[in-house]
Structure formats: C-alpha cells, structure tokens
Design a protein that fits this description.
By secondary structure, this protein is an all-alpha fold.
Amino acid sequence: RERERERERERERERERERERERDSEREREREREREREREREREREKGTSKFLK
C-alpha cells in the first residue's frame, strides 16, 4: 500500500511538471506574438515615413 501512494505522488508531480511546461510554452508563444506585432508596427512606420519623404 505504501508503494502505491508513493507512485501516486510521483504521477502527481509528473502532471504538475507537465502543466508547468505548458504554461511556459504558452508564455513563450505570447512573447513571440508580441514581437511579431512589434515588427508589424515597425514595418507600418517605415512605409508611412517613406510615403511622407516622397
């Protein structure tokens, strides 16, 4: 019985680490999208200024 509980806790910790990795990758994707929007605004500004310069 003792070993059963031990394995159960082990699985629980495993699931916890799994969720942790999920949250990390989610934050990573969020940062990636943020950078993408930044680049997009940068490009828009570039086009805007070049139009004004002509």
